[in-house]
Amino acid sequence: MTALLTLEGVRAGYGEAEVLGGISLELEAGRSLALLGRNGTGKTTLINTIVGATDLMGGKLVFDGQDMTRLPGYRRAAAGIGWVPQERNIFASLTVEENLTSVSRPPRGGAGTGWDLQRVYRTFPRLAERKANMGNQLSGGEQQMLAMGRALMLNPRLLLLDEPLEGLAPIIVEELMAIIGRLIADEGMAVILVEQSAQLILPFTDDAIILERGLVVHQAPSAELANDEKTIVEYLGVG
Ligand SMILES: Nc1ncnc2c1ncn2[C@@H]1O[C@H](COP(=O)(O)OP(=O)(O)OP(=O)(O)O)[C@@H](O)[C@H]1O
Ligand SMILES: [Mg+2]
What we know:
The protein is of the alpha/beta class. It has one domain (30-39, 72-236): P-loop containing nucleotide triphosphate hydrolases (Rossmann fold), CATH 3.40.50.300. Helices cover 34% and strands 27% of the residues. The chain has a 6-stranded mixed sheet, sandwiched between helices. Strands 2-1-4-5 form a 4-stranded antiparallel sheet, covered by helices on one side. The chain binds adenosine-5'-triphosphate (ATP) and magnesium ion. The site of magnesium ion has 5 residues, from helix 1.
């Protein structure tokens, strides 16, 4: 099977400083990947390089058979790469509903087949309750739901979630993780989920990679890594 996303020797960084030292990976359509690693190991740099927010210094990026290496971010989004950035980037002075409709794209399979406003509201009832509120009036959890809803409105084939659970109260983490789990299981969408806690996301994902100093230092099925305490302690520091 041809991969939906292929990275070959991807190098990226900031100015003179190279952060990603050559990353190769493949993700098939509908599969989910846990992207793990401690603080500052390059997880966000990798996500941002895939969406085109950080420039490649070398290597190649292919999505859905198309070489995206030199395409700008908006072309990658149009091709079906959805992104929930680590900072969420909610439009503070737009309402919840305006945030959602500002970037929508019709579903690929025609009307009624994918994500629209009503479906986002059914998935995140809190957003429906808050639809007239401004972006800057939302709690952290609501902002995260809005960032996810906004990415889903693009009807992506690949969804990149950069530490969506960071800084949220345990009860919201549980609620969001259940929703993310359903997206992974039911939608046929490929997902890359960034987290620092392996235990939290390994039960929901197919495969996992661990980054250390901008390199993939471990790659395994999630179910296997979940039982590999030695590797988890070595690279993530917690059992
Ligand atoms: N805009 C930037 N300019 C210069 N250096 C940066 C920039 N963003 C990140 N870095 C550096 O790149 C390295 C990787 O950072 P990155 O944000 O990709 O890590 P991360 O794994 O996402 O960390 P975290 O878990 O804290 O989000 C770090 O050394 C960081 O200081
Ligand atoms: Mg990060």
